[in-house]
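Hey, I was hoping to borrow your eyes for a little while. For a while now I've been wondering how a particular protein folds. The fold is given in discrete form, as structure tokens running alongside the sequence. Could you read through the record and tell me how the tokens relate to the sequence? Take your time with it, there's no hurry, and the full record follows here:
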Amino acid sequence: MNLFQTAGLVVCITSICCFSFNLFVSRGIFRLTKQNPMFYLILSQIVCDCWGLSQTFLLALETFIAYKIPVSNKLSALGSRIGLYTICMHHMIIGVNRVHSIVLPHQYKNFWTILTSKITIVILWTCSLTISSVTIYAVDVSEDDILGHCIERMSYCVPDPTSAGYRLEIKINLCYYGTTLSLAFLFYILALIKMLVDKCANMQKRHTKMFFAPNWQWNMHVRLCFICFLTLLPMFLYMYVLFFLRPATPVTVLLARWLDNFNDSVNATLLFLFSKRVRRSVWKSRTSTSHVMTVVSSSKQKTPQ
């Protein structure tokens, strides 16, 4: 096992730990009611984490046993094709949780309702199935090319830019990263516009001209938007390393793989760790809500007529 395979295993182990931590934190979904929009968004995140965990575990296993266990070409090519299919779907679905699940459900409940949450998730899953199917099964690539491309990924060696497998990866990356970035920026811009509209409306009500007045709620909006923007940076770096750094070297290939895994797993972990708003919404229990309603009703009964 060479240095790059060892580094790849370290990346995979780190991603597995992060995915496991995300699943542990996401168990707060059982404390949420189905009337809460966060229920459906966290459910989609759990699906992404399970998919990414199994995918990363298989990648680590393949990297460890590469060239040691003989496997038939047809079986390896079929596994590679299925792996590319799941990778494409995983990156497409994770777009639903990259930006709008952090900003919109917590701040703009009138804008982001249960119905729009369901519709958005259904649309993204449909797009994932359709685009990934067309991208993978409509490309004229032989099984040997896919097998060779799979061996290149497992051994972390320099890919051949002229191979059909490498061109297939370029098409897939352009497909799902372009769609994910577009969806992320769409919801990001909608959140910023809604935030500015609310700010202008509050200014008109208070008859003030101080746009950047000290306000804890406004500061929280800015902080959440900044955190969401940081989650997009690994995607830009990955696309830059993969598509624009030429000629490709083992270092750039390993950097691209690491950024890919970092984008999937570590970002979600950082959001849970550094965003109090996210943690409070996830861990808010039904009992606390019912307790508040009980206190309110009892206080109403005690008020004199």
